[in-house]
Amino acid sequence: MIIRSLLDTDLYKFTMMQVVLHHFPQAQVEYRFKCRNKVDLTPYVDDIRDELAQLCELRFTEEELEYLRGMRFIKSDFVDFLALFHLNQKYVTVEPSAAGNGEIDITIRGPWLHTILFEVPLLAIVNEVYFRRTQPEPDLAEGRRRLEAKLTLLQAAPYADCVIADYGTRRRFSGDWQEEVLLTARDMLGAQLAGTSNVHFARLHNMTPLGTMAHEYLQACQALGPRLRDSQVFALENWAREYRGDLGIALSDTYGFDAFLRDFDLYFCKLFDGVRHDSGDPLEWGERMLAHYADNRVDPRGKTLIFSDSLNIPKVIELYDRFRGRCRLAFGVGTNLTNDLGYTPLQIVIKMVRCNGQPVAKLSDTPEKTMCDDPGYLAYLRQVFAVQRTA
């Protein structure tokens, strides 16, 4: 069994789920799977379905519920709801693609409140099934050698204040390997390991769980807000209303960075603790974000920039050297920590494509990350937010 706890997911799934419960309990959504690698996943469909069925048998334990209840930003009624919650397999289909091209179609469709927790464990299942079948005797010694070499770079004196976190659940080689990576990183880095996005491992090993919001939250607000042009502002204001100062990191690239800066005015600059980067050139993004704070008369040294886009340790060090002393810094490292044993990782995602029957989209600053199944809507979204087509 690959997923053995419903906490084996990213924290931001729970923080968004609480917002859904309190503000959008009637919302209906649809998610689609995409693999950017050219690999044949069809031989693994039955294994994925079997693991999905076992995932849907899981329930939160009393110990897990008490752990969530101990987080100051998690409200008691949400934990009470989770005590009754389980994932329902009827909302998910897993099929070989009708195109016969080796791709698989995974579709999640149903109430947002009851489907939001599928994404991360499903992606972890696809990864682990694939690597179990293609690498039945993995070279763990090579993985350990690579991991220790990376972490040693951060132990050098100039980087003693450089802090990283594990963001690698969805594309990990396996759950056991992610746990080993976390324990090794804690042993080698100490306080330089800020924590992990994985709530299960955070609970088991007394680490800090990390996360705020993901793209799907801002995407859904395209359909749930009062009008499309105000949907990003609507999403940020609702988030602040729910968490009252907690979880104050805004995601900057759902509508493209230019559109984000137009909406992220003095009010939001002061209201949010910082911003997360997840696409586009991180150096350019950081410089523009710091300039934006300065233009709004906000001292960037009191704000946090979080970098989380396809990071490796040399890139972390480059960004740390550029921005240290100018702001607070944090780095979320994903696949390069939890799936680097010498094999090519799967580049897989599950993204929301509809909410309440309406198309929604992510206008990424990295064009290949843009995902929408309705070209007409995508063009309209670009027009409304004055986003230039880059690819």
Automatic annotation (TrEMBL):
The modification Phosphohistidine is found at residue 215. The keyword Ligase applies. Transiently phosphorylated on a His residue during the reaction cycle. Phosphorylation strongly increases the affinity for substrates and increases the rate of nicotinate D-ribonucleotide production. Dephosphorylation regenerates the low-affinity form of the enzyme, leading to product release. It comes from the Bacteria. Gene3D superfamilies: nicotinate phosphoribosyltransferase. Transmembrane segments: none annotated. Keywords: Glycosyltransferase, Ligase, Phosphoprotein, Pyridine nucleotide biosynthesis, Transferase. Residues 164-387 form the Nicotinate/nicotinamide phosphoribosyltransferase domain. It catalyses: 5-phospho-alpha-D-ribose 1-diphosphate + nicotinate + ATP + H2O = nicotinate beta-D-ribonucleotide + ADP + phosphate + diphosphate. Its EC number is 6.3.4.21. It is an enzyme of class 6 (ligase). Pfam families: NAPRTase, NAPRTase_N. Pathway: Cofactor biosynthesis; NAD(+) biosynthesis; nicotinate D-ribonucleotide from nicotinate: step 1/1. Belongs to the NAPRTase family. PANTHER family: NICOTINATE PHOSPHORIBOSYLTRANSFERASE. This is Nicotinate phosphoribosyltransferase. The gene is pncB2.
